[in-house]
Amino acid sequence: MAIERQLADLEWLAERSRKVLEDPRKYRWHADTRAQLAQIEAEIRRLQDRESMKPSKQSPSPRGGEGRGEGKPASPTQ
How confident is the model at residue 4 (pLDDT cuts 50, 70, 90)? Predict the structure, then answer.
């Protein structure tokens, strides 16, 4: 849940930055705002990548095939 909140906050900040960039009266701050927006967007991508790397709750257990003979050593032959 914390990452979702961070993403929402960053999206809000990015939207505010875009509005500043759309306003020609705020041209004095455009260079700084563009740099800030680039950092915000990079952080959004980083968090999204981290979130997509998390294993889902539906994923199989690490032991996977137990109970079906998978993952067990072969029995020695005589």
Answer: very high
- Tally of CA atoms within 13 A in the half-sphere of 63 that contains its CB: 5
pTM summary value: 0.66
Gap between the Cα atoms of 69 and 64, Å rounded: 11
Element at 44 (helix H, strand E):
helix 30-53
Residue 34 · residue 21 · CB < 8 Å: yes
Q: Which residue has the tokens 């979130």?
A: 51
Q: List pLDDT tens digits, range 40-58.
A: 999 999 999 998 887 766 6
CA distances to 23, 60, 61, 68 from 72, rounded to whole Å, are 66, 17, 16, 9
